[in-house]
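seq as requested:
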Amino acid sequence: MLVHYTEVLCLTINMYLLHPDLQQQERQDQEEFACRLLRIGEGLDTVNDRVQWSTANIVHDNTIEILATTVFRSIVNALPTTEFLANRILLASTNVKVSQLNDMLLESLYGHDINEYRSIDELIDDGRDDVVLPEILNTIEPPNLLPHSLRLKVGASVILLCNLDPSVGMCNGTRMLSCAMVREW
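struct tokens:
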């Protein structure tokens, strides 16, 4: 039985707070925020089972554009460093939102042109009348398939969505930085 081989580990150190470049006020704010989340998770900071939260640290004009520019503020003026990108991420609820964020951030990223890589598709005419044209198929983005078009730019952050080569660390969720664009065909 798997339960016999399972050990519950509790996180006790907020590693982000140990970052050497963190300013004292930011460290204090982050520590306060983390403690608040823990208290809410334990049911301590609620009133009638509702969370009371100050709007002081909430991004105003709560749009996807404002949120993205707040989190990735300096990518417009210079290529981001790996440390800058490693400390930032945005999560989105749908693939459509992810595509919108990616497109917007790529457009605002300093530097080179955007390169587009497309999947290879070919229409095989087998005489049937119910053939769907590739132009139509390429616009569909179901949740379990990769998009037809991959747009990249030097300096863009990339996250792997599948295990390409786990033996060398290229696993689902691995974050990388694009350094060059090459076309080999």
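Helices lie at 24-41, 64-71, 82-86, 95-108, 134-137.
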